[in-house]
């Protein structure tokens, strides 16, 4: 398991600076799963703009998958909390000379107010400071044009490199379309 980010790397400027950031611990796993599910699947996810409910049914993740992320070397699940409530999370992992960003979730009720930008920036900052990586990459479902555009506005570029969607593996959801695939996005840090 990677060392927990130091206080200086995750410290906030003060009570009015926005959410507090910290690394997830094993006891946070159920809350992380609930947040991820609320942001992406089912009718509750439709309250925000990140829903995948029209593309995928079933689960987005489960407790075993999140616990596995917490146990990986050079891997962290960052949490954004305010007033004791979990508002957002993301997974950041070192993959060689590059950081990988995934499992990015913002509570539907908190979407649209800039929290996502803060979480993404904090993840990039952490990957640079902790691992010294020069780039961050991610994969996004190609059909999520609105989400890809959001990342592009934050400096990510489309690579034209695609990965197939894992059809038949319900751990990733139950596809509602036959043409899903992931596109790799990358940003120099």
List the helices and strands and how they pair.
Layout: H1 7-10, E1 20-23, H2 29-40, E2 56-57, H3 63-71, E3 75-82, E4 85-95, E5 98-106, H4 115-131, E6 135-141, H5 145-153, E7 157-164, E8 174-175, E9 181-188
Parallel strand pairs: 5-6
Antiparallel strand pairs: 1-3, 2-8, 3-4, 4-5, 6-9, 7-9
Description of the molecule:
This protein is α+β, with helices and mostly antiparallel strands and 189 residues long. The protein contains 5 helices and 9 strands. The protein has helices at residues 7-10, 29-40, 63-71, 115-131, 145-153, and strands at 20-23, 56-57, 75-82, 85-95, 98-106, 135-141, 157-164, 174-175, 181-188. It has a 7-stranded mixed sheet with strand order 1-3-4-5-6-9-7, sandwiched between helices. A hairpin with a 2-residue loop joins strand 4 and strand 5 (98-106). The radius of gyration is 16 Å and the shape is globular. The chain starts with 6 loop residues before the first helix and ends with a strand.
């Amino acid at each position: 398991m990677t060392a927990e980010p130091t206080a200086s790397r995750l410290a906030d400027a003060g009570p009015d600076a926005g959410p507090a950031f910290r690394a997830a611990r094993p006891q946070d796993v159920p809350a992380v799963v609930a947040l991820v599910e609320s942001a992406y699947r089912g009718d509750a996810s439709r309250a925000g703009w990140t829903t995948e409910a029209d593309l995928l049914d079933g689960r987005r993740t489960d407790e075993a998958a999140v616990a596995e992320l917490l146990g990986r070397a050079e891997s962290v699940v960052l949490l954004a909390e305010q007033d004791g409530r979990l508002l957002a999370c993301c997974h950041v992992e070192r993959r060689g000379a590059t950081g990988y960003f995934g499992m990015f979730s913002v509570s539907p009720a908190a979407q649209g107010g800039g929290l996502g930008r803060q979480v993404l920036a904090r993840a990039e900052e952490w990957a640079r400071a902790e691992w010294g990586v020069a780039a961050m990459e991610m994969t996004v479902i190609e059909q999520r044009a609105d989400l890809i555009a959001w990342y592009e506005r934050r400096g990510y570029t489309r690579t034209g490199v695609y990965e197939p969607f894992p059809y038949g593996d319900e751990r990733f959801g139950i596809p509602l379309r036959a043409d899903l695939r992931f596109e790799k996005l990358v940003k120099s840090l």
